[in-house]
Amino acid sequence: MILDADTCYRAVRTRDARFDGRFFTAVKTTGIYCRPLCPARTPRRENIRFFPSAAAAQAAGFRPCLRCRPEVSPGSPASQGTYATVARAVRLIEDGALDQADVPTLAHRLGVGDRHLRRLFVDHLGAGPLAVAQTRRIHLARTLLDQSALSMSEVALAAGFSSIRRFNAAIRRTYGCPPSQLRRRRAATNGRRLQLRLGYRPPFDWRGVIAFLGPRAIPGVERVGRDRYERTVRFEQITGTLVVRPLADRAELAVELDPELSPWLSTILERLRRLFDLRADTEEIDAHLATDPELRSKIRPRRGRRVPGAFDGFELAVRAVLGQQVSVAGATTFSGRLVRACGPVVDSGQELAFAFPTPEELLASDLGAVGLTGARRRTLQSLADAVSSGDIDLESSSDLDDAVQSLVAIPGIGDWTAQYIAMRALGEPDAFPAGDLALRRAMGPELSTTALRRRAEAWRPWRAYAAMSLWQGMKS
């Protein structure tokens, strides 16, 4: 969404939380940039500049406000376009893609040239990929200094800096002081567990997300309760657990995890944002879907509805294959059997005892004990082989249609499964499993797949949210 300066200024004057993350306000007289809801006194109109991203404000020489803390604002919708290459690049950068690689490598993953990618970043965000990556590191480091008890070297590593020297220099350049001065006190610990927070743009339908994730939780890997989501996490040889809870008094989710996972904090937090769909602008999406009176009449009103994503794309894809032509409960049973047969034990004797198997571990395992048909086993093995070889990337896609085509090329994966994987693993907001029987029945007399797909054209580019609304809120 492109907002004119006068509209932005009105939002700043009213401190409208719905604009949080859509733009950033830079004050020329102080050299500071803020979120629209900053509690500081509103500056005069002639003293303000507006930027589409925090990286653009910093590239123009402004430093982040210490009161409203732009580093915890929800993601800017400038990076949330459905098909935009920039959106996928930002997603990979948030996952640490430029911490160990360069821009040409990132561009290759996206199927574009590095010069073209740099040009797109400047056009959409006002800053290049490296500036966006550096801003992400600085903001994460600032959050860790405030919210964790990690040492300075651990903060630098977790934020993606290659050395403590680069970390110190970046903090000094951005905030005008050393990291130790920003950390007024060390955060309290809970048995040494790290405690962080993830912001979102309200409203947020926590109950709806949990109601969807609960029946689909993988036994031994995930546990879902009314006020918490728990799971095992593994990176290389390091394993641990995390817990996510809603905070009643603020638009944030509380995250608690084992300190051994700190080197992968950036990746973990980004995956949780995807899992809980924290970057969605539900007010805009709901307003768009509400323009269809027939759709509006079929679903129960529910503010802040999200499309639950996936913590791990391969994990979600495997579960989607297991769920073909069986009930949700049946897919959960198969998932538990697969984890026990293929997944390594991380904490014997506990309810959360397993890590989900990697593609390589699944390929090396005997799936006979899972109780699957031969065709289903072959589909899982083909999927694991494609992901392991890099033929399929379940962390990003260059285009929804391309992603679906690459998935349906695997024997045993049809359009329904591919669209479902694109919706949840790849976070494609316009993915739509038109062949789903429940969706075809939801719009009245049972529609054909073609008729439903034609009917859903009016819901673009938010068809995934329409599908989730129909699944979760069909009126009797």
In the CATH classification, which architecture of the largest domain applies?
2-Layer Sandwich
What is the radius of gyration computed over CA atoms, rounded to a whole number of angstroms? 22 Å
CATH superfamily annotation of the largest domain: DNA-3-methyladenine glycosylase AlkA, N-terminal domain
Strand neighbour order, sheet with most strands = 5-9-8-7-6
The structural domain count equals 3
Shape by Cα distribution: globular
Description:
With 476 residues, the chain is an alpha+beta fold. It folds into 3 domains: 5-72, DNA Methylphosphotriester Repair Domain (3-Layer(aba) Sandwich); 81-182, Homeodomain-like (Arc Repressor Mutant, subunit A, Orthogonal Bundle), CATH 1.10.10.60; 197-473, TATA-Binding Protein (2-Layer Sandwich), CATH 3.30.310. Helices cover 45% and strands 10% of the residues. It is built from 22 helices and 9 strands. The protein has helices spanning 5-14, 54-59, 85-94, 103-110, 114-125, 129-147, 152-159, 164-175, 179-182, 206-216, 265-275, 282-289, 293-298, 313-322, 328-342, 359-363, 374-389, 400-408, 415-424, 437-442, 449-455, 463-473, and strands at residues 24-27, 32-34, 48-51, 63-64, 194-199, 222-225, 228-235, 238-246, 252-257. A 5-stranded antiparallel beta sheet has the order 5-9-8-7-6. A 4-stranded mixed beta sheet has the order 3-1-2-4.
